[in-house]
From TrEMBL:
InterPro entries: Tli4_C. It comes from the Bacteria. It comes from Enterobacter hormaechei. The lineage of its organism: Bacteria, Pseudomonadati, Pseudomonadota, Gammaproteobacteria, Enterobacterales. This is Tle cognate immunity protein 4 C-terminal domain-containing protein. Pfam families: Tli4_C. Residues 99-264 form the Tle cognate immunity protein 4 C-terminal domain.
């Protein structure tokens, strides 16, 4: 697919194509199997998929910059990253809901990494889908110390939330309206932040509602006070014969979740 895009750009924009060797260097990948897991390595990083305890877990390493050096290959990335991957696989295990491990480590939703001090770089998120309302998705994210997930380092709280609505959430809507009060004072983990509740309208006349809450972390102590992001998002197409959740119910659900989030 990537090669076809290059051919298109050559035809339309007269943009030179990369040599076959350079293209292969950038797009080669290696899949390696491990017990209950497999890892996809490429020339800049890796992605880990774990199937354990009837749950799927997804980890990824931070991508290195493309140095342009011919030695930056997928094979080199395997040699460099596999010890880190093996360490993670050896220390990770599933965790039951509300289980508090006795050993030192880092808890994440339904998982535990033994020996993790909590100071390692992280960016952790979890998604839930409501059984009775499959049109509603709940996502919570701890953006960690050096998230680099979007514009959170460049913008203040309000501008970051605006960026999320403009570029990330319900992007196929033809119009979005911030429901009053447009900017809501919220607290997550005992820290103040901003909340927004939005009505989105689509070409076919359909409506969806969404709620985003965001707390900006302490840039000097993100391991203790990370950026926190929650959204409760509706996609009525996924209702599957069930009545879509109504506006007031979604707003009430989102506000309840926001108020319940705390560091434990």
């Amino acid at each position: 697919v990537a090669r076809k895009y290059e051919e298109r750009d050559l035809k339309l924009l007269n943009k030179p194509m990369e040599t076959k060797a350079e293209f292969n260097r950038k797009h080669e990948y290696i899949l390696k199997d491990y017990p209950n897991a497999f890892v996809n390595y490429d020339y800049r990083g890796y992605t880990v998929y774990i199937n354990s305890g009837k749950r799927l877990y997804h980890f990824w390493g931070r991508n290195a910059k493309d140095s342009g050096e011919k030695s930056q290959t997928t094979e080199m990335q395997v040699r460099k990253s596999e010890p880190e991957v093996l360490s993670l696989l050896n220390r990770f295990r599933p965790r039951k809901l509300y289980e508090v491990p006795t050993e030192q480590g880092f808890c994440l939703p339904y998982g535990f990494i033994a020996g993790d001090s909590g100071h390692e770089p992280r960016n952790i998120g979890i998604t839930y889908r409501l059984q009775n309302h499959p049109d509603v998705t709940i996502f919570f994210q701890d953006l960690g110390m050096k998230p680099k997930a979007g514009k959170e380092d460049d913008l203040n709280e309000k501008d970051y939330v605006i960026w999320l609505w403009n570029w990330q959430y319900q992007w196929s809507a033809v119009s979005k309206e911030l429901i009053k009060p447009k900017w809501r004072s919220i607290e997550m983990d005992g820290r103040k932040g901003v909340g927004t509740f939005v009505k989105s309208v689509y070409k076919d006349g359909g409506l969806n509602y969404g709620y985003v809450a965001y707390v900006q972390g302490d840039r000097q102590a993100r391991n203790l006070k990370p950026d926190l992001l929650l959204y409760v998002m509706q996609d009525s197409r996924q209702a599957r014969g069930n009545p879509p959740m109504d506006k007031d119910e979604l707003e009430k659900l989102a506000e309840h979740i926001v108020s319940s989030i705390k560091r434990r």
